[in-house]
Amino acid sequence: MREVTRLPCSLALPAILAISSCDGPQLVDMPVIPIDPQSLTVLSPAQDALWDVRDVLVVDDTIWALTASAPHVHGVGPTGKLTARFGSVGEGPGEFRFPSAIWPGGSSGSLTVWDSGSFAALTFSTGGALLSSSRTPLRGAIRSDIGTVTFGDPFRAVPVPGGLVVASYDSGVNRGSDLWNGRLVRIPDDGGDPRALFDFATDLPGAAHLPSASLLAPVPLWDGCPDGRIAVLDPVSRALFMLDPARNERAAFALPWHSEPLGSDARIAYMMSRVRAEIERGSASETEISSLATEAAANFADLFATEKPIAVDLKCAPNLVWIQSFEGSHPLGYGPLWTTVSFHRTSPAFSRVVFPAGFIPHRITESFAFGVVADTGGLQRLATVFVPPFARQRPRSPSTIPATRQAWPTNRGKLKP
Fold first, then answer.
1. 302 — phi, psi (to 5°)?
2. Which residues pair with 133 in a beta bridge?
3. DSSP per-residue letters across 35-93
4. Please, how many CA atoms are within 13 Å of residue 261, restricted to the half-sphere of its CB?
5. pLDDT at 220
6. What is the C-alpha to C-alpha distance for residues 92 and 69, in angstroms, rounded to an integer?
7. What digits encode the pLDDT tens for the residues 157-200?
8. DSSP for residue 402
9. Strands 111-115 and 120-124, how do they pair?
């Protein structure tokens, strides 16, 4: 693979770990800019609330949501009306074991669902008719509840021209540290042999400097971009890699921000989630759960990372990579603060963005973020947030982005993923 390495401060790739000596922009130079809450449009009605949405897709005038429970696929029109709902659990044609991602199908109006449980990509019409399906090689056993144990998404799969990219874990995934043993593999549509694109353990400089801690420790993050490239974040060396499978190239960019100490509140919040997962619902009061979690966080303090990871998720939009910061009250640090990395210039430009409270983005386009908002019981409704072009450059002064009064997709034509 031909490597095109572009690092600020003239850093060579082996010296990525010395990023802290750079004179590039630090977080103090990047003010936090909140998106106005009125830019949020809740689309689906309360009577059509969803549970455990795993992915969101927009195709023409329909937003599709993929949920963990059947029926798995839900289509909602621009007025919020439910237009389609299908997908059952099973082993038969068109049925799912563990659906985890959704993207546009090869034909107009179709959509493809990636079923991690059967290692298959299934393409449907908008009415739910199965059009085609293709299976991929096994890629290692992954515990089904890994998303409650660590950030990082081992079930992620993304389409690229002529194929599909997935992460393969020969030794399986049982804990966060196992994600460092993954490889990105391109699986051709024509049934040809899979091709390894990137090995986290050997191609990420940070893999040689992993902390000994296993809880809330940094893990590699990745996502597919609309132009066919793949973005990979090394959270230890603080470098962002951009892979181009079509041209067999890769570029690396240093990220000029640092970690903060991991406080006791974060450790206790994590242990509370684990205690709740282990005990029978209703068998302990909140006070008892808090006490057990506090004691466990103290007893297993040496298993926790000493610093917050620099990121817990990554999403690639057109010419822009969104990196989610560890913060907030979520046990795994999922919060509304994201840092964008723009590649419009010779060197990257950065912005820090705060989504409206309660909004969880699943997919981000040039102008919109598509995701969900949840009520106190965890039921979710589809929602959109208008994303102004400010995120494409480093902001110069703190401000609040003006609200957009336009509901999706009024006067904006057909939105494309």
1. -70, -10
2. 122
3. BPGGGEEE-S-GGG-BSSEEEEEEEBTEEEEEESSSS-EEEE-TTS-EEEEE--BSSST
4. 3
5. 98
6. 17
7. 999 999 999 999 999 999 999 999 999 999 998 878 899 999 99
8. P
9. antiparallel
pLDDT in tens, 111-147: 999 999 998 999 999 999 999 998 887 678 999 999 9
What number of other Cβ atoms are within 10 A of residue 345's Cβ? 10
CA–CA distance, 349 with 345 (Å, rounded to integer): 7
- pLDDT of 292 reads 95
Q: The whole model's pTM is what?
A: 0.87
pLDDT range class, residue 412, cuts 50, 70, 90:
very low
- With tokens 């990420």, the residue in question is 204
101 — phi, psi (to 5°)? -155, 155
For residue 322, give both structure tokens.
Answer: 């969104």
CB-CB contact of 213 with 302 (8 Å): yes
In this structure, are strands 320-326 and 334-342 parallel, antiparallel, or unpaired? antiparallel
SS percent in the chain: helix, strand, coil, step 5: 20, 35, 45
What sign does the dihedral 407-101-238-176 (CA atoms) show? positive
**Gap between the Cα atoms of 157 and 159, Å rounded:** 7
